[in-house]
Amino acid sequence: MPVNVSDPEYSKAEKEYFEAEDAERRLIALNKMISHAPKHKSSENLLANLKTKRKRIEGEIEKKQKRRRGTKMGIKKGELQVVIVGKTNSGKSSLIKLLTNVETKVSSVPFTTKEPIVGILNYNETPIQLIEIPAIESEEFERGIVHTSDTIILIARKFEDFEEIEKKLPENFAKKLYVINKSDLLTSEEKRKLSAKLQSKKHNFEIISSIPYTNPESIEELKKKIFETFDILRIFTKEPGKTRKNKPMTMKPHSTVRDAAEKILKGFSKKVVETKIWGPSSKFGGQIVGLNHELKDMDTVEFKTR
Q1: Of 159, 203, 205, 237, whose CB count within 10 A is highest?
Q2: pTM score, whole prediction
Q3: What's CA 166's distance to the chain center, in Å?
Q4: Residue 72 within a domain
Q5: Tens of pLDDT along 61-98?
Q6: Which region holds residue 143: left if phi is over 0, alpha if psi is between -120 and 50, else beta?
Q7: For position 148, which CATH number holds?
Q8: Total number of domains constituting the chain
Q9: Each residue's pLDDT tens digit, 219-242
């Protein structure tokens, strides 16, 4: 027997489902229908039918994603790369604009972002490549970028979305940073409960508002947390008699003077006849050290060659 659903939100979602132009929009509408469908014995068949449709549409989207190879854009991976992942209308575009000042199209229309957006976050004298990719439930979702990124920002408007996002994430070994957006719509008590949930999961997280100037402290804290996901040394170089270069090299922990020379140019360490060092790993400024000297964060190295 058909079930008469009187909930106006269900009827609205059903209308959206039949008017949807693509699988992604149908999936969104279908999820709304399931959430507003009655939950009692006589509606079991209706719910089962809706969930079967959802599974079929998710399969269609997954097949489209698997047919894609690589990315549409030839994005050269930065040394420190962060990808922003989230569902449609979660605030991805607003976030990358806040963090990098890159111009993006921010809209309430679902699936506005159709291709990756690249920006640079400069923090602690270190450039970090940030990439916003299309929504995780869209066919334009860039699996390849997620697979190779060093850090993943998972952005959502509610805690429950994180589980859905993680289920759809491709295999990766990146560190994860969980961001709840729209803090301007939350009460202090709601923020406290959210923090408690995220802490219970032992997530590295931040609760923010992507509306400019609403909560600048949380954005600054997020920048700090992004930077801290990278286990790196910042090493400056200088030429004899000149000031140090403004942009540091990023290197792995326990790197040596030889490693720094080789990063400048392969085979360069063989031309070095003297190395001076300033900073945390030196006993005094301008100390002469050998090629096996282990560097520390914020050291400055001066190479003298033949």
Answers
A1: 205
A2: 0.70
A3: 13
A4: no
A5: 777 655 554 444 567 788 899 999 999 888 898 899 88
A6: alpha
A7: 3.40.50.300
A8: 3
A9: 999 999 999 999 999 999 998 888
